[in-house]
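We both want to read discrete structure tokens more fluently, so let's practise on a single case. Once you have written the record down, we can walk along the chain together.
***
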Amino acid sequence: MTQILYPKKENKIVREFMDTINLSTFIGRSYSFHFPKKIIFGVGSSESVGLEAKALGGSRVLLVTDKNLMQIDSIKEIEGILLREGLNVEVFSDVESEPSIEVADKIAEFARNGAYDLIVGVGGGSVLDMAKIASIAIKNPGPMRKYVGVNLVERPGVPKILMPTTAGTGSEVTNVAVITLSDEETKSAVISPYMFGDVAIVDPELTYTMPPRITASTGLDALSHALEALMAVNANPLTDALALQSIRIIVKCLPKAYKNGDTESRFGMSLGSLMAGIAFANSWVCLGHALAYSFSVTYKVPHGVSCGLSLPYAFKFNMSAIQHKIQDIAEAMGLFKEIENKEKNLGNLILSKLLNLLSDLNVPMRLKDIGVPENDIDKIANKLLTFTRLIQRNPRNVSEREAHNLIMEMWSGLTIDEYA
């Protein structure tokens, strides 16, 4: 039996935090909470895809994946499960990493021409996002660019089952499909309640073949979702609980999954990613993702790496605005002895923990390390301020001067020893 989910019950600090949850900041507000109609989690749960497809009434299935995944046995097994249920299955595997609007239009045309009544997406976040696009395209005509934005999708798509092979983007439980707009050197998204999956099947076994580099990148994406969900102004008691538990799991399991890829750490990362996905789908992300979007497309940095690089800087900037959550975050990161020492600056210790994690995962910690020239700092800072949808959810406003200082700090870098 796994022991990864909870800190030890006998820890006095943990018990005190559980008994002193601060609800005063939430009183007087109302919240909505959304996620897929059904979530199935567990080792071997992918075997249920056939029955779930039948329950949704599908007969013509479009299986969305990518060319790399087509080479592994698990995709063939999933296709076989669907075929054994008497379903007609066709495969679309032309999904690229960080898919462009052109890829979205390509899969939309393919889905419309096939007259499918069920979509099954099996892959990382890019695949799952394109599976969502395929679903809505069948019921919503025209180019996909017309749906980029918030609540622009007019009709529900066909039913969809989403099965992640990474841990993770959380795409299986969100209402977002991220699309790269190459001509604008930026990322945007189709955001709509119709983008939620009908069934999310999260099987840790599907992540076992992830190489270390992808494990690190997607794991940092999940950690960013959790920590930014805590910082976002739309955070609520439900999202905070999920985000904190996600941080507990990810901080413990990600280094192990990166180094060893053992089954326990893979299980933990799948669960932590799922929790983080539900959390940020309902509170949203904020400055960290805005920072990541400001440079990732131009300099061709994978999404998870750009989020991981940005996270310590976003947290440092926001520390003064989230003091009421610092102790909870420190506890979730396992800083029990440090919490007991009242002379310690917990915010700095959390920052040190984040920087050390990036170092352990061999992820760049400065913009100069990914080839960003110093002359581009102003351009990146200006682009940062265009992501108003994300910055509006940040607990602290970002002025033009602060944007410039932030990017300058990200270019020159933080020193781990300074915050230890």
In short: The CA atoms of residues 4 and 209 lie 21 Å apart. The longest strand covers residues 118-123.
